[in-house]
Write a structure and sequence with these properties.
By secondary structure, this protein is an alpha+beta fold. The protein has 6 helices and 6 strands. Helix 2 crosses helix 5. The chain is globular and about 50 Å long. The N and C termini lie far apart (about 50 Å). The mean pLDDT is about 85.
Length: about 180
């Protein structure tokens, strides 16, 4: 009994467990993927205040849990690279994006019931827009950092119910302050 009290007191002083901290970061990453459709480890590092290479570690954990997948995107002009063994040699292959799996999408929607998120069928509807979308994600992160507690929420174009139409301007992301 005495040892149990000592351990509980130590936990209260030390703060939340590393599992609880990881669970919170995982949920934030899943919601981000739900709303945007895809991201990179670097975006997760910025979003969650992680040091390099913790974003890759988070992606590996999401993939291992079956909640996300890493997708090689032919023809895209942005993403991240991975080392792969090709014909016995370690080779850098790119561009990859991390995206939700079907079960990850279901979980993310339960965590984020206010928005349906990115349309499952059009996550990568135009590879030429990948770079543009990632830049919008970085811009959102800059606003989030600069506004601090005044930053409330965001809704990317991919999460809106209307699709972009040629010749009609539409916001890339709506920020709530």
């Amino acid at each position: 009994m005495k040892d149990e009290k000592k351990n509980n007191r130590h936990r209260l002083i030390a703060g939340p467990s590393s599992r609880a901290v990881f669970a919170e970061k995982r949920e934030t990453a899943l919601i981000w993927l739900n709303r945007w459709g895809y991201a990179t480890p670097k975006i997760f590092e910025e979003l969650l205040g992680l040091k390099k290479p913790a974003g890759r570690y988070l992606v590996q954990k999401l993939v291992k849990a079956g909640e996300a997948r890493e997708e090689l995107v032919e023809g895209a002009n942005a993403g991240y690279s991975k080392l792969e063994v090709i014909e016995g040699k370690r080779t850098e292959v790119s561009p990859y994006l991390v995206m939700l799996t079907e079960s990850g999408k279901s979980l993310a929607q339960m965590l984020d019931p206010e928005t349906e998120g990115s349309n499952w069928t059009r996550q990568l509807h135009a590879t030429q827009s990948v770079h543009h979308n990632l830049m919008c994600q970085y811009a959102t992160l800059v606003f989030k950092r600069e506004l601090g507690p005044n930053f409330v929420d965001y809704l990317p174009e991919a999460s809106t119910e209307t699709e972009s139409k040629a010749g009609i301007k539409q916001a890339d992301v709506l920020l709530t302050k």
